[in-house]
Amino acid sequence: MTLFLGLVSCNSSATVAEESPQSRFLKSVISLGNDFLNVFTSFGDMVGGVLGFNTNTKKSDVGAYFKKIHDTVEGTKIALEKIVSDMRSEGNPNAEATDTAVKKLVSETLSKIIEGAKTASEAIGDAGDPIGNIATDNNGGAV
């Protein structure tokens, strides 16, 4: 019995040693493709889970989400500008440095978020059909 297992294990290692470079390459390409698929599937699930969107979510809900982002970030921008204004009126010596930091934050980040959220909200509008139903009316924009 032990001799038989020894021969079987020797034979299986010979099979592995005989595996062609082409076969190994094809297996690695298939494995790489599966890994990419797993990564992108996980990323899509993660984004959908974080945002709370799925194929049954209505387009109007997505539009409302981006409108809320717009309003919240716009409110943050206004509040930061008010803080700087109040600091100046109180004669705070840090007002100038704070103003510079706020202007940089607003111009480099907040304004872009506000504009992007506004564009997305307006583009989506208040359509009541699910986001998973993108190609029913106009073939998804195809001509």
UniProtKB/TrEMBL annotation:
It is found in: Cell outer membrane. Keywords: Cell outer membrane, Lipoprotein, Membrane, Palmitate, Plasmid, Signal. One of its GO terms (cellular component) is cell outer membrane. InterPro entries: Borrelia_lipo. It comes from the Bacteria. The keyword Lyase does not apply. Pfam families: Lipoprotein_2. It is a lipid-anchor. The Vlp and Vsp proteins are antigenically distinct proteins, only one vlp or vsp gene is transcriptionally active at any one time. Switching between these genes is a mechanism of host immune response evasion. This is Variable large protein. It comes from Borrelia miyamotoi FR64b.
